[in-house]
Write a structure and sequence with these properties.
- By secondary structure, the protein is mainly alpha-helical.
- It has helices spanning 2-12, 20-27, 54-66, 72-89, 93-105, 117-122, 125-135, 152-163; strands spanning 32-38, 43-49.
């Protein structure tokens, strides 16, 4: 459960020495959004940026790799919010049906089941943070794909500086 929450918590906690509120203020007026993700089979980033804010996007990726931040208040808020949603999930027939179908199709596989309050109680911010750091400790094997309105010549210096500077074995 800690691992399942890792990317969302890190992506909501800010980066380096900046809280998410401070980061949002710094990004105010900019057209850039970068979010880390971790799935069952991959990890990476999704995002977008205007050509003018492309360097900021590269900086964010670099910092999510090298200086992720954990925020205990964000963690607890996320846990409380999830527990609140779970408390009423069983009252919604569509959710009950969806959960039953998912459980049946996945043969009750732990990874495919809806998280329980007991699992949330066992989740741990430090475990989530360490899981995230482990997944993003080495950029070797990552493939970055960029599409949009840019020329390779214009973005190459940013790719070299920020992606080229990522830790890699």
């Amino acid at each position: 459960t800690s691992a399942d929450l890792a990317a969302n918590i890190i992506g909501s906690s800010g980066i380096a020495g900046f809280t998410q509120i401070q980061l949002d203020k710094m990004l105010s007026g900019k057209n850039v959004s970068i979010s880390p993700y971790i799935s069952d089979i991959a990890e990476g980033f999704s995002g977008n940026a205007s050509p003018k804010d492309f360097e900021m996007a590269m900086q964010l990726i670099y910092l999510y790799f090298t200086q992720p931040r954990k925020d205990a208040d964000i963690w607890q808020s996320n846990i409380n919010q999830t527990k609140s949603i779970l408390a009423t999930r069983g009252l919604d027939p569509a959710s009950v049906y969806q959960d039953t179908v998912s459980a049946t199709l996945s043969n009750h596989n732990f990874r495919e089941m809806v998280v329980t309050p007991q699992q949330l109680d066992g989740a741990n911010l430090d475990k989530a943070y360490n899981f995230y750091k482990d997944r993003f400790a080495d950029a070797n094997g990552f493939t970055f794909v960029f599409v949009g309105n840019f020329s390779v010549a214009n973005i190459k210096p940013y790719l070299e500086a920020y992606l080229g500077g990522l830790p890699s074995s």
